TrEMBL record:
GO terms for molecular function: beta-1,4-mannosyltransferase activity. This is Glycosyltransferase 2-like domain-containing protein. It comes from the Bacteria. InterPro entries: B_mannosylTrfase_Bre-3/Egh (IPR027389), Glyco_trans_2-like (IPR001173). The chain crosses the membrane at residues 30-48, 54-80, 368-395, 407-423, 444-466. It comes from Streptomyces fuscichromogenes. One of its GO terms (cellular component) is cytoplasm. Residues 201-417 form the Glycosyltransferase 2-like domain.
Amino acid sequence: MASTVVDGGTPHSRHNAKLAKRTASWKPGILPFLLPFVLLVVFGLWSYRPSSSLMSWILTVVWSLPAAGVLIGLQGALLIRRRVRKSDRMTPPAPAEQDFLIALCPTIGRHDTYPALERSILSYVEHLPEWFPYMRVDILTEEGCEAAADIDRLADSHPLIRVITVPKDYVPANGTRFKARANHYAHELRIAEGEALEYVWVLHMDDDTGVGPDTAASLAQFINRQRRATPEEVKHMAQGILTYPRENAVSLFTWLADAVRPADDIARFRALTGLGTPAAGVHGELLVLRASIEAEIGWDFGPKEIVEDARLALTFCRRYPGRSDWFNGRCYGASPANAADFVKQRERWAWGLVALCCNRAVPLRYRWFLSICVATWILGPLQHIGAVLLAGWLINDMNTSPVTQSVVLLWALNFAYVIWTYWEGLRLNALASLSGRRRWWEPIVVVACIPVFSVLEGLGGFKGFVKFVRREENKFVVIAKPA
């Protein structure tokens, strides 16, 4: 996304118009799932050999484990294909003139994260005011951060931007740390300033994630729809789609590997958050929440919490069942700069999610689904086809068939879904890019590299699990942010 405001006749504005048009007409494909599923079923039935060995029993369990998440993900994709609903037709895009929007962007304020922060903040002041006549952009940072002078200059460049500085000695009542601590400080400040109101919305963003014209229009449509909803139907939280434009990527490899992330937004998050119960969690960007509801929940979840967004979602499930939604807008982030940062990012997520899944303060009925998804993730290295073949060679048992032939259908479903997520996620990221389309070779490469990408995903998940088991001190690792 651009980092300067330009007028309506420039190539940049024409790109914005094309971006809004093509994202509005997008819907998930069926063939990228159906074709692999049929081929995998045929191959699985052809190659099946009856077995009741220990290897077959283990594979029957671990390769079937993702099925719950897969079925919910497919439900989400089908819901998007049917997204032209009566409520959407009754609420055409229009400026949200009766509500106030606060775009909140926390940042650690390092020099290596500032370029991405500047790109993101300037996208907010470029695209949001057209749809939100009453709004503000809050940069949330730490006292004494490295890039404080640059952040202050950025705030001085536009009247909508202000800086909120978290004092070094600020400690919330429950001792929460890291990003949650900063969010809680901003939440307490809104209460003190009288902004914790029903018509005030907080748009939570990351410091490397910008917005575009489609983001603002879809967000305004969602907020306006709440004005017309009945008390039984009104929503208090919503999430959109996180995408990665090609232009924001430093590494082509990690850009391709991150194709899986927008696919999760149009699958599991669309199904669960979009139907009112964000049991799979939410991500910390493009998350909009009523200030009055955030004032009741807060972010003070304790000193061990490092996945504050997922914890907020599970708390929301319990207090406001059925009151979340999903909207078809995108935000525009950047993939990690290299494979090491990619693994480090996943490691932190897994570390925090395993801890959350084991947290008895959250009732089991709200964390069981997330626990299955996380278990599938951290078992990734053991499920990898390379690890399975190596184990079979070592024990002289190369039969990888399940204990019963019917399981072949379940395996085909799971593996076809993985292929679909990378295929459709790549398509989404390409749509968000300047060209608006995939290069001819990218779908081939992204599918061929799935075994490599799954190693990185699984390695990060497993390392996070090991750190949790060893009870290492929680750390909120912030990787460098590409400009």
